[in-house]
Design goal:
There is one protein chain. This protein is α+β, with helices and mostly antiparallel strands. The protein is built from eleven helices and 16 strands. The strands form five sheets. The chain has a seven-stranded mixed beta sheet with strand order 3-13-9-4-5-6-14, with helices on both faces. Strands 10-12-11 form a three-stranded antiparallel beta sheet. Strands 1-2 form a two-stranded antiparallel sheet.
Length: 404
């Protein structure tokens, strides 16, 4: 501390906030508020430089993007988490099931490995014929749905349900029996063992869910022949499914000639009607058809739904996923579905191609029909002549340009 008033005076007056009050005795000082202009007012800086403006702008934009992306992830997770996830049983899966190949080349299906392409995602679609009171049923529909980013195509390959195949741990049977015996897990193993194609994921929709999905989407508009309409009307009537709220009035359909002498009509089908159309393989006296025409109808219905999504914006597509999610059972994980959803507008630009395996035009070449004794019953089956040759034809459709 200073020892005299002179030194004390020098000390205090170094502080601009301490002033001597006039009229007081020497050495008496009084602290007074500083002038407003002196309250630590920093010197006025020049305007922000262009470099700083750019940096701040980028920081703000990135912050907004992070907030929006975080919000999207949360919304997407809540949407996709509504889908019924089911882990596949891989314990008894065939060789090379769990791993994907990382190279562009395919592997030989006939040496025990599965054909695979990292740019093609193969999803096995099952339409389960699970009736009321049953825990499982046969797969009325089996379609390999491929998202082919290499060739920019969406592919649908119907596997004919009457094809006679090897079922792991069971006697040989029709391929649709594999779903009845062991659900999607065994059905996927059966497809891989016999067709040599790597199945990456699967999705299952039963009859009730199919109806609900179509109704949720507001039905479908489709061109049908008169006999196909008669079939739908007949099935709804004979199964007691016609009531005042859901009655198909044949007189409401306007028929016209398509130039080939066959009357057709553009009609709107609800979920119940669309299901009967997708299950239509002919009815004696009402509608001609077989299992090939049925698979063709199933792929046509799917194509109509895909075309509708093509005309929808991203928000609408997300809304559809949210609504129909609980009606689908799949082993696609939420993270995988999110990735697919973010690219869905790109995938929907791809061309849609479809076929059946075996194709009916290859009757006598790839396959023949035969009555086989199965579980005490004589059943008509599709029998493949040469599985190696047939697998090559299947691989050509799914992967294209396959060298085996």
């Amino acid at each position: 501390m200073p020892e005299n008033n002179e030194e004390q005076e020098k000390v205090f007056f170094r502080n601009p906030f301490v002033q001597q009050e006039e009229g007081l005795f020497d050495g008496a000082y009084h602290r007074v508020p500083p002038p407003k202009k002196s309250i630590y007012a920093p010197p006025r800086k020049n305007a922000l430089s262009k470099k700083h403006i750019i940096f701040n702008t980028i920081s703000i934009v990135l912050s907004i993007m992070l907030i929006l992306s975080g919000s999207f992830c949360l919304v997407a997770y809540s949407y996709f988490n509504r889908i019924n996830y089911e882990e596949i049983d891989e314990e008894n899966a065939p060789i090379n099931y769990t791993g994907r190949h990382t190279s562009d080349s395919k592997v030989n299906a006939y040496n025990g490995e599965l054909l695979d392409d990292p740019m093609i995602l193969n999803i096995m679609l099952f339409g389960a014929d699970t009736r009321k009171g049953q825990s499982s049923g046969q797969s009325d529909t089996m379609i390999i749905f491929s998202i082919d980013t290499r060739h920019k195509k969406l592919k649908m390959l119907s596997l004919m349900r009457d094809t006679y195949v090897e079922i792991p741990d069971y006697e040989n049977n029709k391929i649709n029996a594999s779903f009845f015996y062991g659900g999607a897990s065994l059905a996927v193993q059966t497809v891989q063992r016999n067709y040599g194609i790597k199945i990456d994921r699967y999705a299952v929709v039963d009859f009730k869910s199919f109806r609900n999905i179509i109704d949720t989407l507001g039905g479908i508009d489709i061109e049908l022949r008169e006999e196909e309409i008669d079939y739908i009307n007949w099935q709804c009537w004979v199964n007691g499914q016609v009531d005042t709220r859901d009655e198909i009035d044949i007189n409401q359909f306007i028929f016209y000639d398509n130039g080939e002498g066959e009357p057709v009509a553009n009609v709107h089908l609800n979920g119940r009607q669309a299901l009967w159309h997708a299950r239509n393989r002919g009815q004696e006296g009402i509608c001609d058809g077989d299992d090939y025409t049925r698979t063709l109808r199933q792929r046509k219905v799917m194509s109509i739904l895909i075309d509708r999504l093509k005309k929808s914006d991203f928000a609408t597509i997300m809304s559809v996923i949210y609504d129909i999610g609980p009606m689908i059972t799949t082993n696609l994980k939420t993270s995988e579905i999110t990735k697919l959803a973010t690219n869905i507008t790109t995938y929907l630009k791809y061309d849609i191609v479809s076929a059946s395996a075996p194709d009916y035009s290859h009757f006598g070449i790839d396959f023949y029909y035969d009555n086989l004794w199965i579980n005490g019953y004589g059943l008509e089956c599709i029998v493949i002549y040469d599985w190696n040759s047939f697998r090559k034809r299947v691989a050509d459709f799914v992967f294209e340009d396959v060298t085996l």
